[in-house]
Amino acid sequence: MAADNRINFWRRNPKVPGSVQPVYGAQHPPLDPRFRRTYPKDTKPKFNNLKSKKASTFHEFARSTNDAWDIDDEEDEDFFLTPGPAPSLSSGLHSASTVFIVVLLDFLIFFVWPSTVRSTLKKQQSLPVRPIIPLVARISDQNASGAPPMTVREKSRLDKFKQLLASANTDLEELRKHSWSGIPREVRPITWRLLSGYLPANKERRELVLKRKREEYFGFIEQYYHSRTDEHYKDTYRQIHIDIPRTNPLIPLFQQPVVQEVFERILFIWAIRHPASGYVQGINDLVTPFFVVFLSEFVTEDVENFDVAALPLDTQRNIEADSFWCMSKLLDGIQDNYTFAQPGIQNKVKALEELDAGTLHHHKYEVEYLQFAFRWMNNLLMRELPLRCTIRLWDTYQAEAEGFSHFHLYVCAAFLTEWRKEILSMVDFQGLLMLLQNLPTIHWGNEEVGLLLAEAYRLKYMFADAPSHYKR
Amino acid sequence: MQNNHHKEHLYKILVIGDLGVGKTSIIKRYVHHNFSPNYRATIGVDFALKVLNWDQETVRLQLWDIAGQERFGNMTRVYYREAMGAFIVFDVTRPASFEAVTKWKEDLDSKLTLANGKHVATVLLANKCDQGRDVLTNNGIKMEQFCQENGFVGWYETSAKENINIDEAANCLVKHIMASENDMLQSEVPDTVTPQLEKDKGGTCSSCFRSQ
């Protein structure tokens, strides 16, 4: 009943007071989170309230368990914090209209301009608009090879990143803002290390932190890895051991014994340090993007077929430790996806059902959201998208304040909407469910992910600004 | 509906068991007639459809491939809903996966009953039989005893890799599902006395055992 009213409301009122709805196609980084906090209490986004309530319940649960989530991995983060510009609470200056104009400009620059450039190129060189991607999709960013030379805009973006990264204290807020619409391949490894909170903003300290964290990780290995054969842990290890050969089974890189051993160590150490969840299937997928991105620093050709054993041992070890820590940081933000009964996933699947007003709600075949969207949440859409798209997606997730936990929901809603036409054309339950479990994204690249993120961004603000209409 | 010339049946069948026992491989073999050693771990549930010609009738099997990890156990209730039959799979090379069979059976029976209050027909699959035989499955009498004690309608040694006994096991399950369906149709109208027609494929329990 309530849901029906809500749907009708949105149908009848395309213009919702206070929403920034016209920003369709936005590629601009999201509004400063501080901006949202300046709302009067009563208009505070309902969803956020709900979430923090849940989080506190989880916190109670977490406190009652002895878990590495409780251990302060950031013991010296404060120490490294440098007196940056104090967070100005007057960011309310970003009035909605300013944002709208900036967003509109970005829209023009990102979508309209490059497409003209592309079509000109096409005429000149009779190149296909999109590089042909083999069935076993290439991992690396489309920009890496086979793409036209860097445009002026891409070049200036890269320069901006380089400048930010080279400064004595990297302005993380600024770095996030630029990362939202995609990080250039050359600077992605270091940017990911910074955005995940693994590396400090202070440039001088970075080497030291890296050295210490890498040693710490290999300390864990020395101390705990032998316990994988213990009665207590052998089941965890066995599950990991079964899953590793079937992680990315079609990509040769992941069939190399050296790489499989890296994954086993990372997952085993993480699992025994987080007994509240332990190893949950799907977490194995989450190591992949980090591993590929950190490996890409040392590989000029395609990563997919690279022989990792040919790298110096030190380099291999550094990639492993960095992947471990960055994955740990990611999981810290979505821990309730993997604890008992997986409340994080259940809540997000329910929320997806609420957000989806136009596709499955109108379908006569009653597919349950849990039947397809469980995997979307548990594996962060990694099973639905080629790896190169996941990497691009994670640029934005790491630039967003709660990218992996909160923004991901809106991305899922946008993803569902993307297939509206196909979904509505299905004539039976079987066809519908098989479509939803095998959405044809094999050809997807940066462009499609960009549009998906823009739609997710629009949804996020549409629902955040209309809290009273987002009722559970 | 009463037209017997071309009757259609639609059955939801669950495939459950511990992780890595070969549930996905069995379904791929059965539906797509192929095998790969490296299917990715199932997350949540995967869905497949198999259409059978059964005498003059069409049988559509909805196969629900349910993730085997214990952590996902809370979701099973949603996935079990309205199922008519089930395969419980274990890996003959891993005794622990056989120990989990009774756990899966209990989970299934506690969350799912037919309209007449009975449990759904369940067939036990001893998979990966191409990789050497388990001591237990060597002893057919013991296995049949295990099936009777635990409410399985039959058991098969299977190999998705070598395509052994998959079709046979599925036919056995379908036979039992049809039998229980007839059973329910009759109990739906208890005041009416309907003459029972003898059907070739009505199927009794013992007709299904491979040993016979």
TrEMBL record, chain A:
<keyword id="KW-0343">GTPase activation</keyword>
<dbReference type="GO" id="GO:0071889">
    <property type="term" value="F:14-3-3 protein binding"/>
</dbReference>
<keyword id="KW-0597">Phosphoprotein</keyword>
<dbReference type="InterPro" id="IPR035969">
    <property type="entry name" value="Rab-GAP_TBC_sf"/>
</dbReference>
<protein>
    <submittedName>
        <fullName>TBC1 domain family, member 22B</fullName>
    </submittedName>
</protein>
<dbReference type="InterPro" id="IPR000195">
    <property type="entry name" value="Rab-GAP-TBC_dom"/>
</dbReference>
<dbReference type="Pfam" id="PF00566">
    <property type="entry name" value="RabGAP-TBC"/>
</dbReference>
<dbReference type="GO" id="GO:0005096">
    <property type="term" value="F:GTPase activator activity"/>
</dbReference>
<comment type="function">
    <text>May act as a GTPase-activating protein for Rab family protein(s).</text>
</comment>
<feature type="domain" description="Rab-GAP TBC">
    <location>
        <begin position="182"/>
        <end position="401"/>
    </location>
</feature>
Automatic annotation (TrEMBL), chain B:
<dbReference type="GO" id="GO:0045335">
    <property type="term" value="C:phagocytic vesicle"/>
</dbReference>
<comment type="function">
    <text>The small GTPases Rab are key regulators in vesicle trafficking.</text>
</comment>
<dbReference type="GO" id="GO:0016020">
    <property type="term" value="C:membrane"/>
</dbReference>
<dbReference type="GO" id="GO:0005802">
    <property type="term" value="C:trans-Golgi network"/>
</dbReference>
<keyword id="KW-0636">Prenylation</keyword>
<keyword id="KW-0342">GTP-binding</keyword>
<comment type="similarity">
    <text>Belongs to the small GTPase superfamily. Rab family.</text>
</comment>
<dbReference type="GO" id="GO:0008333">
    <property type="term" value="P:endosome to lysosome transport"/>
</dbReference>
<dbReference type="InterPro" id="IPR005225">
    <property type="entry name" value="Small_GTP-bd"/>
</dbReference>
<dbReference type="GO" id="GO:0005770">
    <property type="term" value="C:late endosome"/>
</dbReference>
<dbReference type="GO" id="GO:0090385">
    <property type="term" value="P:phagosome-lysosome fusion"/>
</dbReference>
<dbReference type="GO" id="GO:0003924">
    <property type="term" value="F:GTPase activity"/>
</dbReference>
<dbReference type="InterPro" id="IPR027417">
    <property type="entry name" value="P-loop_NTPase"/>
</dbReference>
<keyword id="KW-0472">Membrane</keyword>
<dbReference type="InterPro" id="IPR001806">
    <property type="entry name" value="Small_GTPase"/>
</dbReference>
<dbReference type="InterPro" id="IPR030697">
    <property type="entry name" value="Rab29/Rab38/Rab32"/>
</dbReference>
<protein>
    <recommendedName>
        <fullName>Ras-related protein Rab</fullName>
    </recommendedName>
</protein>
<dbReference type="GO" id="GO:0005764">
    <property type="term" value="C:lysosome"/>
</dbReference>
<dbReference type="GO" id="GO:0005525">
    <property type="term" value="F:GTP binding"/>
</dbReference>
<dbReference type="Pfam" id="PF00071">
    <property type="entry name" value="Ras"/>
</dbReference>
<keyword id="KW-0547">Nucleotide-binding</keyword>
<keyword id="KW-0449">Lipoprotein</keyword>
